[in-house]
Amino acid sequence: MTAAAGRADERVARAGLVRRLLIRPELGAVVGLVAVFAFFAAQSPVFRSPQGVANWLDPAATLGIMAVAIALLMIGGEFDLSAGVLTGTTGLILVTLATRYGLDVWTAMLVGLVVALAIGLANGLIVTRTRLPSFIVTLGTFLMLQGVNLGVTKALTGTVQVSGLRRAAGYEDARALLAGTVEIGGTPFRVAILWWLLVTAVATWVLMRSRPGNWIFAVGGNEQAARAVGVPAARTKIALFMTTAFAAWLVGSILALRYTSVQANIGIGQEFIYIIAAVIGGCLLTGGYGSAIGASVGAVIFGMADKGIVFLGWDADWFKFFLGAMLLLATLANRLVRRYAEEVKH
Amino acid sequence: MIIETRGIGKTFGSVLALRDVSMGVAAGEVTCVLGDNGAGKSTLIKILSGVHRHDAGTFLVDGREVSFGSPREALDRGIATVYQDLAMIPLMSVWRNFFLGSEPRRGPAFDVARARRIAREELLAMGIDIRDVDQPVGTLSGGERQSVAIARAVHFGARVLILDEPTSALGVKQAGVVLRYIVRARDRGLGVVFITHNPHHAYPVGDRFLLLNRGTSLGEYGKADITREELTALMAGGAELAELEHELRRE
């Protein structure tokens, strides 16, 4: 048997490191990252300076937290279109409760978390019970939340924003924890970057090294087959929707604490950006394949392009063009890579 | 006998799907269930594997009467079923598929190193030579995929292995590979229920042959009592085949 094992191992070596590397879902995103960095860094000295890096890592962090959660959900075979608006909802709850109802910031955040998790649970329950496509279910939640955000804010304030979080009790501590800065080598970086790295690390560990991670790949790959071998498919999916809602709460709180005010229409349109970042990071739209690190890399590409275009003094409208081009290129690259990886047989 | 049925039957509404079927599966033996489409093969295995509950006759496991309410109950008694289409998740690696739903743990973590090692060992013990347990199952051939599913069932303590048409979608060579693993599982002391509509696949590996036609049994034969030709003729419905031959003969 040792001889057989030895023989098998030899053949692994022959199968090639190249295929092993190519089969990683995040490969396309990493290539894109290097290309985009090289493009902007070559033309803008500010872009490659520590201040520049801190500048483009900032949007990457808040986007990255959401993209990672959405990537897990997409690997599990579902979408969540309500995630963007939910960042607004949680921010509005935080600011409204802390400024108009006398709650301290921590309690207000806790209420926001409970509401977010309840919405995630509702999304998950409806999708798993009815077997309706999550695209439609969460489109419904998206529209409802959008209406609630605007309607409630207008009814309470007569305007479309709530503000004044700075005066609330516990603001300074909460801000330091979620929206402050840390100095690294003399350059201030947003503390959100650390949260983003933590979220990415935890998500990667869950995906690659935990039992639920195996279940996420399985329910996205073939839910029936997964169920047949005893995977709790419904629970896994509901947990994924709640994870996305948790991420939306985290990002909503970070943004509310940073700006101390929240617009009622914030987050609308972001849901597609999260999906795009996850897809650039190697997630398949059909589920069962993808990576949390890839989604984070996708978010960095976004951050770079978002700020890089400004550094170069271009019109910000070009960002949208860049976004579309990136998405197309990434999906084409992913498709080629996956085909090549799967074609190499025996 | 690990599994035995006596005059077992099942109706769905007004449809008699299966009636009066008696069969047995012993450790270290292969029982082949043969029959054309609609003969009742899948109803029978669904009763054995716990998907359906029988409503006539008796179903014995280890000599005691049972009536399974779910596949889990059957699995707990060591009866594992490998379905043709439900076996594997193509985008996941061999070892992830192997342990799906029963992942070994180390603390809170999925013990990945152990899963990889055991998957490789179990496959080798079954004589399945897979280049790399990290490769996605989608890159395996149909025969290899069935074989991995069989090795998985064996590893998780199956005493009886029910194989639902494992060779029907395969070419001659691939089917041979799967037949070899059926024999290997038998030699490890498992009872195997091998469902097929191909007597040429059944005859070389079977110890016992149950023939089904239109929901009922045409009899259970030991290997000594039947030849390959008789099996083929019975399977096709000998008289019907003769008639068909006559009908199709050129003027």
UniProtKB/TrEMBL annotation, chain A:
Oxidoreductase: is it a keyword of this entry? no
* One GO MF term: transmembrane transporter activity
Gene Ontology cellular-component terms listed: plasma membrane
Q: What is its main location?
A: membrane
Q: Which InterPro entries has this protein been placed in?
A: ABC_transp_permease (IPR001851)
Record's keyword terms, sorted: Cell inner membrane, Cell membrane, Membrane, Sugar transport, Transmembrane, Transmembrane helix, Transport
Q: Which residues cross the membrane?
A: 21-41, 53-74, 81-99, 105-126, 191-208, 238-260, 272-298, 318-337
Localization annotation: Cell membrane
Name the membrane topology term: Multi-pass membrane protein
Is-annotated flag, keyword Secreted?
no
The record's listing under PANTHER family reads: ABC TRANSPORTER PERMEASE PROTEIN YPHD-RELATED-RELATED, XYLOSE TRANSPORT SYSTEM PERMEASE PROTEIN XYLH
Q: What does this protein do?
A: Part of the binding-protein-dependent transport system for D-xylose. Probably responsible for the translocation of the substrate across the membrane.
What's the name of the protein? Xylose transport system permease protein XylH
User: Which species does this protein come from?
Assistant: Nonomuraea rhodomycinica
From TrEMBL, chain B:
Question: Which keywords does this chain's UniProt record carry?
Answer: ATP-binding, Nucleotide-binding
Tell me what this protein is called.
Sugar ABC transporter ATP-binding protein
Q: Tell me which species this is from.
A: Nonomuraea rhodomycinica
The record's section on PANTHER family has: CARBOHYDRATE TRANSPORT ATP-BINDING PROTEIN MG119-RELATED (PTHR43790), SUGAR ABC TRANSPORTER ATP-BINDING PROTEIN (PTHR43790:SF8)
Among the GO molecular function terms of this UniProt record, one is: ATP binding
Q: Which domain of life is it from?
A: Bacteria
Q: Where is the ABC transporter domain?
A: 3-239
Q: Could you tell me which Pfam families the record lists for this protein?
A: ABC_tran (PF00005)
